[in-house]
Design brief:
36% of the residues lie in helices and 19% in strands. It is α+β, with helices and mostly antiparallel strands. It is globular. 49% of the residues are buried.
Length: 619
C-alpha cells in the first residue's frame, strides 16, 4: 500500500460516537490541534439503540460530563421530546434525569458543534493501523494509506470493530443501522488482549399501525429540570411515551422458537449485557414472570418510527413479528426496522491505566465501548476523561484521575481498569459506595473546579458555578438564623404527616432536615431563589448527617488511595504475599494501594503485607 502524509496533529480521535465526540471536543477546546476520523459523517453521535439520554445513574454521568465542560448535556437539552426525573419517591442519591431524544436533532446539534469548534478537524476514513515508535504512539494509517501523525491517539471504535449484525440465521458484516463496520484494524497486533461482546436493539415500528389506546400514557415532567448546568429552565412541548406488557402468548412463541435464536443455537459468540437482556433471555431466565414491561417511545418529531423498549431480540424476523403481535397495542404493528443483535471486538480493560491510557503504549488512549462498556452516557464520560488526559499527556502533566468518591465516572473507570468486565458494563447507582456524595445535583460542585484546573471549563460556566455556590452557602446560613413560631412550624410538619414540636420557635434549616420542603418554607422566608439553588440547599440540609458520615468514610480510605505503587514492579518478590495475590497484582499493575485493595483475589491480609513492605522499602 502506498502511504502519504495526511497531516500532523496533536491528537487523532478515531470514531465519532458519543465517546469520540466528547474526546475530540475536549482536546480541541483545550487548545490542541485535533483530527476526528469517522467511518461516515452521517454516523456522528448516532443513537443506534435507544433514542434517549440519561436514566438511573446514567443521568448522573451526563451531569458529570457537563460539569467537566463536555457537550452531551447541552445537546440533550436542545433535542429532548420528553424529560422526567426518575425515582422521585426515593432519596436524592438515586434520583436521576432521563430524556427521550429526537435522535436526528441530537445528531445534527452535535455535528454542528464539532464542525464549529476551533482546532477541530473532521474527516472520513477507516483506520487500519495504529502507528508506534519507541513504545509510544506516533499516529494512525487509514485503509487508503493516509497517515495522520500525532503524539496522542484516542480510540473510540464503539461497536464497529469487526462488527457483525445478526437476525436469526442471517448475519452480515456491518455496523449498526446499516452503516459499514471497521474490519481492518487489528488491535491484537499491538499486543492487546481482545474480547468479543454483543449488544442488541429492538424493532422500530410505524406509529400509524399502533393502537395507543390500549397502552398506558407516560408523560414527562411539567416543570422539568435539565441536564446541563448552563441550560435555562424554560419548559417546552413534550411528547408522550406509552407502556404495555408482554403476556403468556408472547412467551409461548419465544419458547417454541428458542432453537432459532442465535443466542441459544451457538451462532452468537459474544457476551451480552446482563442488565439489558433480550426478550428471549428474559423469558428463559425468568420463567416465573408472567409479563414484562414494554415502553413505546418516539424516535423523533418528524418521523413515525417508534422504539419498542424492552423487546430487543436476535430472533428471525418472522418470529419477531409474531411475538410483537401478541402485545396489546402492537397487534397490527408494521415493522420499519427489525430487531437485531450486533457482535464486536473490544479490549480487556485492565490493560488501561486509570487515565484510560494503554499501559504498554504511551499516548494511546481508549474510551467507550472499546473498553467493554455499554451505553451512550458511559461512553461520553470516558470520552471526556480520555480527551482531557490525552492533552495532559502532551503537556507532560499529571493525568486527571477521578476517584470513586469524586464521580460516577470515577467508579466506572476504576471498575474497568481494576476488575475488568466479563460482559458489557452498565453503570448503576449500586456500584457507587459513596452515592450520597455523588448526587446529580452536586456534579458541578464535585467536578467543575477540576475541569477548570485542566483548562476545559469556560469563564462563563465557571462564573455561573461560583454564583450558584455562593447563593447556596448564603441561603444555608440565612436559614440557620431564621426562626418560625411553633404554630407555623407545626402547620408545616403536620401537612407532611410529621411529628409536631413542643418548643416555641424552630430554625427553618432544622425543619428542612426533618422533611419540610423548601417550597413549604418559602412563603415564610420571603425569598425567591433559582430552582437548582433551592434543590441544593434542601438536599444538603436534609442529608447533612449522612453526607458527613460518608465524607468521614472517604477520609479514612484517602491514605490508601493516595499511596502510590511503583510501575513495573514484580510482586512475587514480596515474602508473605500469597501467590494468587502476587499474580493478580502483576497482571493488573495497580497504581495505588487503594486500587490494589479492590482487585479480586487480593485480600485485606495481602494489603497489610504490601503496606508493610513498601513502608520498609522505599521505591
Amino acid at each position: 500500500m502506498d502511504k502519504y502524509n495526511a497531516g500532523k496533529y496533536d491528537v487523532v480521535v478515531v470514531g465519532a460516537g458519543h465517546a469520540g465526540c466528547e474526546a475530540a471536543l475536549a482536546c480541541a477546546r483545550m487548545g490542541k490541534k485535533t483530527m476526528l476520523l469517522t467511518l461516515n459523517l452521517d454516523g456522528i453521535a448516532l443513537m443506534a439503540c435507544n433514542p434517549s439520554v440519561g436514566g438511573t445513574s446514567k443521568g448522573h454521568l451526563v451531569r458529570e460530563v457537563d460539569a467537566l465542560g463536555g457537550q452531551m448535556g447541552l445537546c440533550a437539552d436542545s433535542a429532548y421530546m420528553q424529560i422526567k426525573m426518575l425515582n422521585t419517591s426515593k432519596g436524592a442519591a438515586v434520583q436521576s434525569l432521563r430524556s427521550q431524544q429526537d435522535k436526528t436533532l441530537y445528531q445534527r446539534n452535535m455535528k454542528w458543534t464539532l464542525e464549529n469548534t476551533d482546532n477541530l478537524h473532521i474527516s472520513t476514513g477507516e483506520v487500519c493501523k495504529v502507528e508506534t515508535s519507541g513504545g509510544r504512539v506516533s499516529g494512525v494509517m487509514t485503509t487508503i494509506g493516509a497517515v495522520f501523525s500525532a503524539d496522542a491517539v484516542v480510540l473510540c471504535t464503539g461497536v464497529y470493530l469487526k462488527s457483525r449484525v445478526i437476525i436469526g440465521e442471517h448475519n452480515i458484516s456491518s455496523g449498526p443501522s446499516g452503516l459499514f463496520g471497521a474490519d481492518n484494524l487489528n488491535l491484537g497486533e499491538l499486543g492487546l488482549e481482545i474480547q468479543r461482546f454483543k449488544t442488541g436493539t429492538p424493532a422500530r415500528v410505524d406509529k400509524r399501525t399502533l393502537d395507543l389506546d390500549k397502552m398506558i400514557v407516560q408523560h414527562g415532567d411539567e416543570n422539568p429540570i435539565h441536564f446541563s448546568f448552563m441550560t435555562s429552565s424554560a419548559a417546552r412541548e413534550q411528547y408522550p411515551c406509552y407502556l404495555t406488557y408482554t403476556n403468556e402468548k408472547t412467551h409461548e412463541i419465544i419458547r417454541d422458537n428458542i432453537d432459532r435464536s442465535p443466542l441459544y443455537s451457538g451462532k452468537i459468540d459474544g457476551t451480552g449485557p446482563r442488565y439489558c437482556p433480550s426478550i428471549e433471555d428474559k423469558v428463559v431466565k425468568f420463567p416465573d414472570k408472567d409479563r414484562h414491561q414494554i415502553f413505546i417511545e418516539p424516535e423523533g418529531i418528524w418521523t413515525n418510527e417508534m422504539y419498542v423498549q424492552g423487546m430487543s431480540s436476535s430472533l428471525p424476523e418472522d418470529v419477531q413479528k409474531a411475538l410483537y403481535a401478541t402485545v396489546p397495542g402492537l397487534e397490527n404493528a408494521v415493522f420499519m426496522r427489525p430487531a437485531y443483535a450486533i457482535e464486536y471486538d473490544c479490549i480487556e480493560p485492565t490493560q488501561l491505566k486509570a487515565s484510560l491510557e494503554i499501559k504498554s503504549i504511551g499516548g494511546l488512549f481508549c474510551a467507550g465501548q472499546i473498553n467493554g462498556t455499554s451505553g451512550y452516557e458511559e461512553a461520553a464520560a470516558q470520552g471526556v476523561v480520555a480527551g482531557i488526559n490525552a492533552v495532559q499527556y502532551l503537556k507532560d502533566e499529571m493525568p486527571m484521575v477521578l476517584g470513586r468518591s469524586d464521580a460516577y465516572a470515577g467508579v466506572l473507570i476504576d471498575d474497568l481498569v481494576t476488575k475488568g468486565t466479563p460482559e458489557p458494563y452498565r453503570m448503576m447507582t449500586s456500584r457507587a459506595e459513596y452515592r450520597l456524595l455523588l448526587r446529580q445535583d452536586n456534579a458541578d460542585e464535585r467536578l467543575t473546579q477540576i475541569g477548570r484546573d485542566v483548562g476545559l471549563v469556560t469563564d462563563e460556566r465557571y462564573d455561573k458555578f461560583m454564583k450558584k455556590r455562593e447563593a447556596v452557602d448564603a441561603e444555608k446560613k440565612r436559614l440557620s438564623k431564621t426562626s418560625v413560631s411553633v404554630a407555623q412550624a407545626n402547620g408545616m410538619l403536620e401537612s407532611k404527616g410529621l411529628t409536631p414540636l413542643k418548643v416555641s420557635v424552630r430554625a427553618t434549616n432544622l425543619l428542612v432536615r426533618q422533611g419540610v420542603t423548601y417550597d413549604d418554607i418559602k412563603p415564610i422566608c420571603g425569598i425567591e431563589l433559582e430552582r437548582d439553588v433551592q434543590h441544593s440547599v434542601q438536599t444538603e440540609i436534609r442529608y447533612q448527617g449522612y453526607i458527613d458520615k460518608q465524607s468521614r468514610q472517604v477520609a479514612r480510605f484517602a491514605s490508601l488511595e493516595k499511596r502510590k505503587l511503583p510501575s513495573g514492579f514484580d510482586y512475587k518478590q514480596i515474602k508473605g504475599l500469597r501467590l494468587e495475590a502476587a499474580a493478580k497484582l502483576n497482571d493488573i499493575e495497580p497504581e495505588t494501594v487503594g486500587q490494589a485493595s479492590r482487585i479480586s483475589g487480593v485480600s485485606p491480609a495481602d494489603i497489610s503485607v504490601l503496606t508493610v513492605y513498601f513502608s520498609a522499602n522505599k521505591h
